[in-house]
Structures are given as structure tokens and as C-alpha cells.
Amino acid sequence: MGEAKRQAGKAKDTAEDVSDSKAFEVLARAGYIAAGLLHILLGVIALRVAMGGSGEADQGGAISALGDGPGGSLLLWACAIGSIALALFMLSEVFFGARGLKDSDKLKFRAKNGAKAVTYGVIGGTFATYAAGGGSDSGESTQGVSATLMSNPAGSVLLMAVGAGVMVVGGYFVYSGVTRKFKENLKSLPGKGAGQAIVRLGMAGYVAKGVALLVLGLLFIVATINNDPEESTGLDGALKSLQDQPYGAWILGAVAVGLIAYGVFMVIRSRYQKM
Q: Which range marks the domain in which residue 75 is found?
């Protein structure tokens, strides 16, 4: 029993040493670059749609576009490695990063970083899937899952909860953008114009992503109320639904530009993020 405890402690110390290493930090920061590229391409596709073009304005469409470019496969694998490294870093924060915090703050800290770990893990897995030649229509996948959940009352309640949760996250993104709360996660920014430009990019990006998530969550809820899984079309459907509103093309265009700004901000964030 004592030997097992010592081995467990040794493994924990090793994991903590790895998470604190400079090499691991560099890989984790690359995850922010991967997320930035994803949002830039997502915004470009959405902007193309707003201007009357076509394209899948979702994660799958953006990753496919990235893979179709020069050195696409290599770039996808690099993004996968960076995203997974960032997910592991966030996971290490769950276990090792709460030291020194008040007990009342530890649960919130761990839940927040745990959610980020899952998010970047999913992004990394998606990059890896496309790099290996896989991929699927995310809109159809979302509809399939929604149809399965809507087939029973418990599933419908869960889908409503998912929609509400996505809207809460979207609202938090808007709040973070408007109040500049995201600056809490950054080290000292450059002075004068450069620093102000980074903050403005972050503000525009956070608000735009928040709007996209609010619409996505609302579509989940509406689809569940109407018992119509075809209305649950994922982010692509959420963005394209903005076109059905008055001045929809302009609204979608503004959100698209905001998503591009968020992507550029994420690339810059890889340099200034507190780790």
C-alpha cells in the first residue's frame, strides 16, 4: 500500500514537472494559434456567404479549407498537436493550478479549466480526424443527434438544457467582450497603439463569437419546442439564419468580420496569454 502511494506521488510529480516545462508551454501556446486559424477561416467562409457565395460556415468547413491549402495535411497535424497540448495543459490546471486559491474559488477554477480542456480536446481531435482523411457533415451530425434526443421526453429536456447552456456561454462571451474581462488572462500588452488595437480586436471578436453562440443555442431551443431536428443545423445553420433577418447580409457580414478579429486575437493571445 505504501509503495503504491509512493508511485502515485511520483507519477503526480512527474506530470506536474511536464506541465511546467518550457517545451510543453510552447506546444500549448500553439493551440491558441490553431484555434485562431480556425476562427479566421470560419469568418472568411461566413463573409463569403454574406456576400452571396457558398460554403459551410462551421468548424468542419473551416478545417477542410485549411487542409485544402498548401501543406494542408502537415498544418492540420500541427494544429491537432497544439490543440491537444493546450487541452492537456488546461487539464493540468484542474489538478495543479488551484493551489493557493480559496476553497470557494477552487471549484469554479477547476470547472472552468475542465470545460476548456474538453473544448480544446474536441478541437484537437477534429483536426486529427481531418488530417487522417476523415471528416463528416457537422450539420447532419447535429440533426441526427437532435432527432435521437427529441424522440423521448428526457432527451428533449437535455437538448433544451444544452441550448440554454450554449446561450449562457454566448452571453458570457458578449459580456467579456464589452467589459474587456478577457484582459485578465493576458500578460502586459504593448504600450500605446499596439496594445489598444489588441484589446479592440478582442472586444470585437468576443462579442461576435458570443452572438454566434447565442443564435446557435436559440436554434437548439426552438427546434426542440417545434420538435423539428432539421432546425438544429449547428453553427453553419445558426450563422446562415442571420440572413433571414432584416439587413441579414449586413448582420452576418459584421459577425463574420468579428470572427476573423477573434481569430487574429487568438493568434496574438498565444504570445500574451498567462500560462
A: 1-136
